Structures are given as C-alpha cells and as structure tokens.
Amino acid sequence: MNGRSQYLPGQGRVVALCGGVGGAKLAVGLQHVLGERLSVVVNVADDFEHLGLHISPDLDTVLYTLAGLSDPVRGWGRFDETWNFMEALKQIGGETWFLLGDRDMAMHIERTRRRVSGESLTIITSDFAHRLGISSAVLPVTNDRLSTIVDTTEGELEFQRYFVERRCEPLVKQIRFSGAQSARLSEEVLASLDGDDLRLIILCPSNPYLSIDPILAVPGMAEKLRAACVPVVAISPIIGGQAIKGPTRKIMDELGVEPSNAEISRHYAGLLDGLVIDTADAAGAGHLGVDVQAAPTLMTDMQSKITLAEHALAFGESLRVTPERRGRPLRREAHHDDT
Ligand code: GDP
Fold first, then answer.
1. Which of 46, 52, 203, 270 has its CA 20 to 30 A from that of 236?
2. Are strands 137-140 and 38-42 parallel, antiparallel or unpaired?
3. Model pLDDT for residues 103-146, shown as the tens digit of each residue
C-alpha cells in the first residue's frame, strides 16, 4: 500500500497503546501505514458483565474501526446496525440503558461463549480480528479482570454506569482500577514490547485518565515504557484547551488540573520522549519537558488519520534514545537525518 515503509525503512514494529474512539482513529491511520507491523494494546478496564454477556467496549471500537465497520456518526458500534433486540428487550421490561445493536450482539455472545469455554480474551480477540480482515495485532492489555471505578460526588460508580447510564454527569473525585495489582500483562503484550525489531511506542490521543492510565496500571507496563530502548511518543487529546469528544476536559477540570498540553506532558512524565501537539497550540506551548512536534491532530477523515500517523512515526524516527533518559531531567538527543 502507498506510504508503507516510508518512515520506517528498517521494517521495525510499532506498539500503540489505545482506548476507544479517539485512540482507534489514530490506530486505523497507523494500520494503513504499518499493516502487520503494528500491535494495538487496548484498554480492557471498561469491560463489564451485562445481561450475562462479557462486553469489551474499547476492544470492540478498535476492532470495528480497524475493520472499517465503525459508525462514523454515532462514534461507536457498527455502521450497518439495526436495533430489533433492544426494542424487543424494552417490550419485556429488560435493562435498556446500555445499547446493544443486533449485529454487535454477535460479538458479545460469541466472546462470552468462548470465554466460558476457557479461551483467553487475547485468543478470542485475535481470532475475531483475523476473521474481520484486520492486518494489525489487536491485544487486550491483560486477560485478567481489570475494572475502572469512578469515585464521584454521588459515590463510587462502575465505569459504564458513570459513562453511559449517568452520562459522566457526577463530579469525579478520583479514579481507581480494581484488580490492577494482580492483573498480568498478557504474554503477547510482553512479546510486542520486546525484541530488536521494536521501533517505536505510541500513546494514542485517548483519554489519559480513563483509557491510558488503566493500561499503565497493569504491573510492568509503565516500567516497560520507562526502560524501553525505543522512543515513546504521545499524541495529545487536547486541542485549544478542549477535548474533541468525551469527558477528558470535564475530568481534568474536576481533578483540578489544567486542560493543556503541559498537563498531558506532566501526566506522562518519565514515560515520554516526545509529544505531538496540534499546530493551533504550537505558539503558546512553551517548554513541555519533552521534544514536541506540532502537527494537525484533528482526525476528521481517513486522510487526516493517515497523515497524523505519518507525522507521529516520522517524529518517533527523529528521536534517539539514550539509556539514561528515563530519569528526569531527560537526557536525550534528537537526530534528524533521513537514513
Ligand atoms: P473512548 O474510550 O471511546 O472515550 O476513547 P478514547 O479514550 O480513545 O478517546 C477519547 C479522547 O480522544 C478524548 O480525550 C478526545 O479529546 C480524543 N480525541 C478524539 N478525537 C480526536 C482527534 O481527532 N484528535 C485528537 N488529538 N484527539 C481526539
């Protein structure tokens, strides 16, 4: 495909840490450029049990997006969806606060069936990805239970109750990840982060608090990033002091932090070599403590996703890592040759 290998002549691999909608937009651009050289490590702390089914909202968003099946208007689920199941469920008095489309149900039912029969989430996801024609690897960060709990002014809420049922209205006091202490990175995630052919690690422009933090909360993940011999680059989810979509800005306000690139850089301190910020924010960015690349980061169509992916990859290629870099202050040189 055009553009492949343009920025990574060494045929190296790239690992991208990803939540749902915002992260998947970049992941599909990265997949276009890298194909099977991309592994997308996905948050599973939004997963929950509903109507007896194992639902993995971020994994499904990534699968549908990479397969070209996602609904661009709704932002989640499949574009070719129908809603007969929900109508019938409502008629008989079932719980309808969490919408499940007819085609989407196939994913939840089959995932649940295979989990009950003893297969891991990693194997099931990999098989679904293959069958949906996805060329990149889609890896749940862990096969173990991991659940985001949002401590709000109305008490502790399970993530989907906060996010979907309460539409993020309760004020957030704290966020914790139940199960994180005993969760283990999957073997496939560990393997993706090892090996001489690993070239770059990317933190997608996902919600840092709800999507990336739970991935980093799995023991070993933050250490892997700190110790990585390849550059680690994040793409900011904040443009002009606002989040494009979702509660990132609201949560930052409620946690008492400034919705700015400086705060994104501070949040990921010690993990990053570079931060991609929007061109609109370049002038006032100031010193962010990491190398900064300005690029158009608003992804509205396939081309803008590919262009941002190419920017992130080229930026990553321009950063050279020195072994001491993880201790702050950073000691790292940038090199900008084209070889
Ligand atoms: P969720 O789990 O479905 O909420 O999705 P993510 O956590 O992956 O993404 C949510 C974040 O994506 C929000 O903070 C948005 O600001 C960010 N986002 C969404 N679209 C874009 C975009 O086009 N560009 C950038 N830079 N960020 C985006």
1. 46
2. parallel
3. 999 999 999 999 999 999 999 999 999 999 999 999 999 999 99
**pTM summary value:** 0.93
What does the alpha-carbon distance between residue 28 and residue 70 come to, in Å, rounded to a whole number? 11
Dig out the tokens for 284 from the structure.
């006032």
* Alpha-carbon gap, residue 220 to 242, rounded angstroms: 31
**Residue ranges per domain, the chain?**
5-75+119-337
Atom 12, ligand 1: residue with shortest CA distance: 22
CA atoms of 56 and 115, how far apart (whole Å): 12
Q: Does domain 5-75+119-337 have CATH number 3.40.50.300?
A: no
Reported as a single tens digit per residue, the pLDDT across 25-50 is: 999 999 999 999 999 999 999 999 99
**92 CA → ligand 1 middle, Å:** 36
